[in-house]
Design goal:
The structure is a homotetramer. Chain A has about 350 residues and is an alpha/beta fold. The first copy, chain A, has 2 domains: about 100 residues, Aspartate Aminotransferase, domain 1 (Alpha-Beta Complex), CATH 3.90.1150; about 240 residues, Aspartate Aminotransferase, domain 2, CATH 3.40.640.10. Helix content of chain A is about 40%, strand content about 15%. Chain A contains 14 helices and 13 strands. In chain A, helix 2 packs parallel to helix 11. The longest helix of chain A is centred in the last third of the chain and has 22 residues. The model of chain A has no long low-confidence stretch (mean pLDDT about 95). Chains B and C meet through helix 10 of B and helix 10 of C.
Chain lengths: ~350, ~350, ~350, ~350
């Protein structure tokens, strides 16, 4: 049974494993104050093109999101997210548990634009309602779409004009930045947003997300918040070593490129087999619409999520590729898909 | 510069590293639903001698404590801890951040006994005060002392009579259970307390704590709380693989035994050199009282914490040994201590 | 300038004022443990027809809602509310500030039915999402609609089958129960729901809401939560005296009947004048759709809220009547409306 | 049975009652935006001698404290209080429920001085501990002592040097400012502290506390916090009318003077009867040490709290006088005390 369920089914890239092995018996300072972490941070700052950002390493994404939002907002302030937003749907109320409402905006493609946000600002008029203060977006979004540079610029401008903090959840940021349709770089994020994180867990690390705080006013005492939320890893070097390896050359992007290439191959072949997709997704998640009977047969050999029912006989499924997905597995899947299609 | 600062300065035991390498490219389910985690849990249940406990793996100790206390208590209920308790002093208000007061009880040796707790119960008489509902202890305590089986039995009885949840922070539980003065086993904990955790981070794992919930009434929906607190690791197998390796034979205890043996050696030799200790500590932390001038010289070669000033010329320092501490390093330290003592 | 903005523009009914004056210099116990509060609670229990419910008096509605929800739910549990629900829109994130998500269900008439709730239950499938645990409704709803006995019975049955707590915000409960379309009594609420509150602030009291907890499992330690949320009034008798006066005979319902009668008069006359309404509202709020030019003229003489724009030239306004609204003021308003209509 | 249990046993001063009656049927804006509240605020600003402070009216003290602390502090920041502090002992963890630790400082007379606070600052050294950010004091303290102007000046200077917010709980502020030993005025508070509240509930109002925010940086969006905590009273004028009456002349202080005079009479006569006091208390609470047998007899006629056991045969009791305490009741108490003393 091969899995296209997600991009964290395997361990880590062999270079990361090697780096962990080589440093294993060294003694280092705890809590991210080790030399590996410091070096990794320096390398990422160079990539971002700003030496003045603050970078903190976390173990996971929900942890990063709840620490960031709780640290950045005052109690009466709320975050705005697309209705598909991870913090709205898949984090068990982690943000609300820190005291903050998340305002849901219904959109079709997972992306927030100024015209989607404006009505929410207008509707929150006085102290009987929460005060919208942060715009939370994911790139790529939870349904695989990505922001263009122009879209992010417009959003950034809108947020600055309206004193809104713009925060980007980059759980799969590598896949977005390496998409064929992408026209942005890390350095653009560094200029346009207040904070974002560079996801490692879903791009070949054992675990780890690198939070980048660009806005000076949000930096103060941030490590207190990390510790308070239980997110300060004792052997912080584990994160440092991994991000150092990912960013000492292009490994981070190479891994994302493999995931995207495999997703593109899936899209091409599934299209060739005559199927359509639920949504346009230029990153490492694809959402083909398949007959339920075909899905049933595929499930005997492959593991993946059924995303949603489309009509009486068809459903969209989610196939996720990763840094570790091999072309032979994709081709095998396609072969099965064709075989079951013929036999239907 | 050799470090006696803590027991998480190195990476992990080579067997754990090997297990990670061997399983690296396997695909597994996420979020702790993989086979490694299930096997590790089975092995720990056997050690505890109860198949009916629930076991959940966490990345770190503060994370475990805040998830547990937040899940177990209603909003008006409070935890009771010794004044040295980790949740009171060193977790940046993590427990209060989930809404709960921690009641501090002043004790001398880090340990709570029924007679220490009773006055706090008596002082909380009505709805104008929080309701004490949990007793939080650490074994070993933050200053290295350990509970005897009889002490834990008395505490357990008292808690049950007073409807208090008894929770044991076992960040260094291996060291306690392998202490020469210990007369308890994991199975005793399983019988006497409502929940406890088996610390991995400070006993040779890369990271990881295994929470054991013994009391049925505290088990429901616990995974929701783990997720909400950002503590559900995507590649949960990383924790499972480590605890599987630690408990497939006696590795967990062997590692603790090394830490204790090295601490005992330190105590023996420091005593022989004519120094006294701040507190009786039969586990892997020792607190010798040394002349400030000697401390200054030692600091040029070794890294460790100065615990507290004892008088005008002397301070207690904290030396921590670990699974990775080598006898030659301890002997080297002693040699230096003696050399600097002679030259003082 | 006469106000139809809300039902808390005046002080209190003269009988309540008289009761306050007469008892003013008596000494009583604080925090609701006085004899007036005890008597008021007894009278309300009789009306509800259950001596086994617990009743607690609060100062205001948001305070009641946040204390109730925070006390009843565990951290990972969420409340479900109609998209117009007061806790969703007009309480500044008070519920989220206690750590709980409120799930919004889009409905047209302000009312929740089992078929509205079922999809939300189905969508929350595992520990990556909050667990829906409470259904919050208002009767009347925020847009003036009321629940029939049959509707509440169906909802009650559904909640019990799905282990959901059913809680009714009764800020304007008097108006609902005295509506011409109502077929329920207080005793029906006592049988069908887990908790509800009888609103005083919006029905002639200076302030005050009486929370009724019907479900035994939700009663324990409730006063701790009241105190913790800053809701335990020192001179609790102020609430007791008022509810005693409201329930020693039919005063509570008489006051609501006046509000409803005045609303009915408004509806009748506005209909006669040729205007329609945004929504069917058989309680003390009416939502006529009027030309914007007419609204502008009315605003010179009357204060009320513009509810929403309906088309280019017309808007719905909200007119609220109360225990204190006089027929002459309603007639005066109608006269003006007709006058401005003629002159338009 | 006459009560010396507290200073909120009776209703309100007749002038306040009269003002409520006279305004009863007027229509006013809700939520404190009425003219009475505005006038009351203007009068208080004049007394404080600063037109630039912000004043908000609350219903009760715990509500005020939790709203203030939650609004002023970031999640990792803590308040420092004397071990007797109301927020530490008698508010059911209300502050912790908003996420903040309260650091307890052991003092003997209920007062905090710079030398008491300094060690707490020194002990909180890094991000593993909360960050002390507010100093919470009460004047008078919970055991009746009061701050001199010089003491408050030293504290203010210390707080400003250490970037600590100085907040004064003034539940019984009238009694402090009217004490024979007092050398401060409202205007001194306005200059020396960041925020304080002028207590009404314990000084003759039905309910009500006037929060004064002096520090500009703490003012923004404060009404959002009031609403979120359920503390924005719908008929806000009830608070405005009362504070208007209290401050339109010297009524607020006259009421406090009566409470103090009655307390002084108690102290004088109890001293004359040969008894001592637990603590020096120049405000409206006195703590005489009486034989347990005498206490028992007094309890048959009077209601009051037994504060603490002093030795095997004696206890300290707390007697509280108020704006409503009559000389004849005090003299009656003294008579009984003497009678029972003779007969002992």
């Amino acid at each position: 049974m091969y899995s296209f369920k997600n991009d964290y089914s395997e361990g880590t890239h062999e270079r990361i494993l090697k780096a962990l092995i080589e440093s294993n018996l060294e003694q280092t300072e705890g809590y991210g104050e080790d030399v590996y972490t410091q070096k990794a941070i320096e390398l990422m700052k160079e990539r971002i093109g700003r030496s003045d950002v603050d970078i903190h390493l976390f173990v996971g994404g929900t942890q990063t999101n709840l620490t960031v939002i709780s640290a950045f907002l005052r109690p009466h302030e709320a975050a705005i997210a697309a209705n598909t937003g991870h913090i709205l749907v898949h984090e068990t109320g982690a943000i609300e548990a820190t005291g903050h409402k998340v305002i849901s905006i219904k959109v079709n493609d997972g992306k927030l634009r100024p015209e989607d946000i404006k009505p929410a600002l207008d509707a929150h008029t006085d102290e009987h309602m929460v005060k919208p203060k942060m715009v939370y977006i994911s790139n790529p979004t939870e349904i695989g779409s990505i922001y263009s540079k122009n879209e992010l610029e417009l959003l950034s401008k809108f947020c600055r004009e309206n004193k809104l903090i713009l925060y980007v959840d980059g759980a799969r940021l590598g896949s977005a930045l390496c998409s064929e349709e992408n026209d942005m770089e890390l350095s653009d994020l560094g200029k346009l947003v207040d904070a974002f994180y560079i996801g490692g867990t879903k791009n070949g690390a054992l675990m780890g997300e690198a939070l980048v705080i660009c806005n000076d006013s949000l930096k103060e005492d941030f490590r207190f918040h990390i510790k308070q939320k239980g997110a300060l890893l004792a052997k912080g070097r584990l994160l440092g070593i991994q991000f150092l390896e990912l960013f000492k050359d292009d490994l981070y992007f190479d891994l994302a490129r493999n995931a995207n290439a495999m997703a593109n191959l899936l899209k091409k072949e599934i299209t060739a087999a005559g199927y359509k997709f639920l949504t346009h997704s230029p990153s490492n998640q694809v959402f083909p619409i398949l007959p339920d009977k075909l899905i049933e047969k595929l499930q005997a050999e492959y593991s993946f999520y059924i995303w949603e029912k489309v009509d009486e006989y068809n459903s969209a499924v989610r196939l996720v590729t990763s840094w570790a997905t091999k072309e032979e597995e994709v081709l095998g899947f396609i072969e099965n898909l064709k075989k079951f299609t013929v036999n239907k």
